[in-house]
Amino acid sequence: MAGGERILIKASGTPLGMLPNRTYEIERFPLVEGAQILLYTDGLTEVFQGDEEFGEERLLALIAD
User: Which domain holds residue 29?
Assistant: First the structure.
């Protein structure tokens, strides 16, 4: 990331909307002007390429400057 810090926010738990009346905690992260955010589901990183998962490392390599 050119001139900035990459923050990887790990999430876990029940997917949004799956269970009625489920509550979630709020976390806040400051975004500076020009910052970018990538939101994705595990379906993106857990897809298989041949015999192995695509993986988070490959995804991060694709978006690296």
Answer: 1-65
